[in-house]
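Reviewer comment 2.1 asked that we show a complete input and output for one of the modelled complexes. We chose the D-xylulose case, as it is the one discussed in the main text.
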Amino acid sequence: MARKPHQYRFSVGPWNFSEGQDPYGPPTRPAQPFDWKLEQVKRMGFDAMMFHDDDAVPDLDEKKDAQIRREARELKKRLDDAGLFAEIVAPRLWFSPKTIDGAYTSNDPKCRRYAIERSLRCIDIARALGCKLIVLWLAREGTYVRESKDASRCVDYLVQAIDKMLAHDKSIRIAIEPKPNEPMDVAYIPTIGHALAVAQLCSDPKRVGALIETAHCILAGLDPADEIDFACRFGKLWSIHLNDQNGLKFDQDKPFGSVNLRSAFDQVRALERHRYGSRGECVAFDVHPFRTTKVEHWSKHLENSRRTFLHLVEKARSFDEAAAKELIKDRNYADLDQMVLEHLMGV
Ligand code: XUL
Ligand code: MN
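Response of the prediction step:
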């Protein structure tokens, strides 16, 4: 019997309304306050927002715990009033002078301690926001100079940090967002396989899973749809950042499907196969406006990514699985290949 199709919920981060600066030039759009972003998210009809800890409580390193909690509770109220919820909170462990040589894996014990303390405060913020999912993008855990660190010891540092977080709040789950490079030359957790292997060493492996980002998989030379299938097979895909990436260069965060529509279809098909979203998971688009984007088109990349996604959900649901099965039985992959192309072209 066919299963009832489920609805998706969509999430977006304040950083997805970026201003267009790059390493070679200044912003091309004027910075907007958080309330403007909240208004956009509401207007677009998204369901949730993602936060870095300091998106929720700016300059939190300068603030006392009570003030941090108070500001987080005020934000929760604004989200409630807007009919939104916080999907994830992620510690920003790449900005402080204390994370120049890495956060959890810094060679300096004082800096490692800072990274852990900051992560525990991030969990306190998540708690005040009513959010149970902490995301770890391990931006600076890796090397520029191979001989500067011991990669095996760094696994222990990562596990120790995650264990402290798990012990701090028994109700949270942690989703590791792998990325193979940028800002580091070589990162310690480049793929979902690495993330899930680290999860197994933690004190409560059931509470450590993954967040997959399309562009990060492509940068690792991997197929994002296969990464999704792999994580889902372990029941470990707890959030997703759909976007696109044109080959091996800087992290582009292009609109979903903008480079490779077929790969986008395969990613949606993998999500559908595993009923991603039916257990409360959100679909997020970690996309940025092109630098050329005018102020009046500022949210287009998000709305367009969702449009493409929803069209591809229809394409996945209307794909002739029985015909595909016959072709597979006959090892006629040539016609299977063409069938996919014609389905996407609508011919
Ligand atoms: C970096 C990236 C981050 C994380 C959140 O490439 O994707 O925005 O998603 O920290
Ligand atoms: Mn991301």
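The CA atoms of residues 20 and 269 lie 32 Å apart. We note this here for comparison with the apo prediction described in Section 3.2.
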